[in-house]
Amino acid sequence: MSLISKLRALATFGRGVVTTGLTPLHSGEDPIEFFREWFHEAERAGILMPEAMTLATASAEGAPAARMVLLKGVSQKGFTFFTNYGSRKSADLEGNPRAALVLHWAILERQVRIEGTVEKISREESQAYFSTRGRGSQLGAWASRQSEELDSRGTLEGRVREMNERFKGGDVPLPDFWGGFRVYPTRIEFWQGRASRLHDRLVYDREGDGWRVRRLYP
Predict the structure, then answer these.
(1) Structural domain boundaries of the chain?
(2) CB–CB of 182/78 below 8 Å?
(3) What is the DSSP secondary structure assignment for residue 29, as one 8-state letter?
(4) Cβ(211)–Cβ(31) under 8 Å?
(5) Which candidate in 113, 135, 182, 197 is catalytic?
(6) Is 197 labeled as catalytic in the residue annotation?
(7) How far apart are CA 212 and CA 106, in angstroms?
(8) CATH, range 3-80+99-120+186-215
(9) In tens digits, what is the pLDDT along the chain, a chain of 218 residues?
């Protein structure tokens, strides 16, 4: 985090976010818009990579796993991230299409927990995002056999060189084995730190086309 980002974060912290807490909300309010507000505040605070989030999955047999991924899209449809479809996370989601996400912004004493069902996004959506990635990242997507055993770093670097030669002089196409997943939220919890650990927690549960909101004990 740069000095300017640190100063912005300290200024945000000093505005009393942790003392004001969460105001009473009503079931008609939209948690997706609420999330967007919090995300934009995290960006304005200068937090390094506010889009970083934990993705928790479980295999078809129930074995849990968690890792950090990047949030690349938010809409009324859900929360989108991208990966190699041959990865462990993808295998988990194929066998058990449910997941949980956590975004934690420590300087704001905030976290958002999201639970829901998961499905692959369309190839067109994946292509639209893939085209925005740097060429190095595009080549890396082709070169990596994500989650498979790798005998040496040199092998990986050799594969990158092979892909660079393969697509030399042209655009790097979207691999068939790479793309996005979308978590369709059925539950979203907003957690705001407060003094004496008397934190605010508001949880939204999807009910039909709307949401039911409740306040939870910390």
Answers:
(1) 3-80+99-120+186-215
(2) yes
(3) S
(4) yes
(5) 197
(6) yes
(7) 27
(8) 2.30.110.10
(9) 455 555 555 555 554 444 467 766 555 689 999 999 999 999 999 999 999 999 999 999 999 999 999 999 999 999 999 999 999 999 999 999 999 999 999 999 999 999 999 999 999 999 999 999 999 999 999 999 999 999 999 999 999 999 999 999 999 999 999 999 999 999 999 999 999 999 999 999 999 989 999 999 99
